[in-house]
Amino acid sequence: MSRLHVPEEGFDLSENTQAVPWDFLNARCKSFHVEFLQLSAAGMSLEQAQALKNHVVLKIDFAHQIAGFRGVRVSMDVNQDLASTPSEDGGIPWKPGKMLVKPVVYRGASRSSARTFELEIYQESNLQRFLEELLVYGMQEFSFTNISDRYFGCRDFM
């Protein structure tokens, strides 16, 4: 099998729900993780660092490697290409997110995980089935709230 082209940030399902190549979609999945990632507190006061909210992602491990990749990370990230939008009622502004599926070369918890919860997969499924469950409900369309130049919402998505 030839090496698959993977964009640096991963496959953007908010922009194109068909972006993930079939080789990945057909991959059998072995385990499913919910990860709370550590954020850098460099340059922050102790009070600011304690107020940090962990970024949350899904991590899915494949049963077998696909083109050197052992799984994918599914995340909602802030779409920095788009401007924040004020809410219609004058409340908290929001900024669109993008659902990214990024192939990874490791199995198990990410090194940057502060806490990982592993859910076993009892019924054999492929990646396409997991992603379809998100896409059928339009979950690739998501916005973050913008409070004091900080973005919140990925934990709500998960």
Structural commentary:
Strands 1, 2, 3, 4, 5, 6, 7 and 8 form an 8-stranded antiparallel beta sheet that branches. A hairpin with a 2-residue loop joins strand 7 (143-147) and strand 8 (150-152). The model has no long low-confidence stretch (mean pLDDT 77). It is built from 4 helices and 8 strands; from the N terminus they run βαβαββββαββα. 14% of the residues lie in helices and 38% in strands. It has one domain. The radius of gyration is 17 Å and the shape is globular.
Write the layout of secondary structure elements.
Blueprint: E1 11-12, H1 22-25, E2 29-37, H2 46-50, E3 55-66, E4 69-78, E5 94-104, E6 113-120, H3 127-135, E7 143-147, E8 150-152, H4 154-157
Antiparallel strand pairs: 1-5, 2-3, 2-6, 3-4, 4-5, 5-7, 7-8
Tell me the fraction of residues in β-strands, as a range: 35-45%
Shape, principal axes of CA atoms: globular
Share of helix, binned: 10-25%
Q: What is the helix/strand order?
A: EHEHEEEEHEEH
Strand-pairing-aware structural class: mainly beta
Q: Radius of gyration in whole Å, from Cα?
A: 17 Å
Number of helices: 4
Number of strands: 8
What is the CA–CA distance across the termini? Answer: 33 Å
**Could you tell me the mean pLDDT?**
77
Instruction: Characterize the biggest β-sheet.
Output: 8 strands, antiparallel
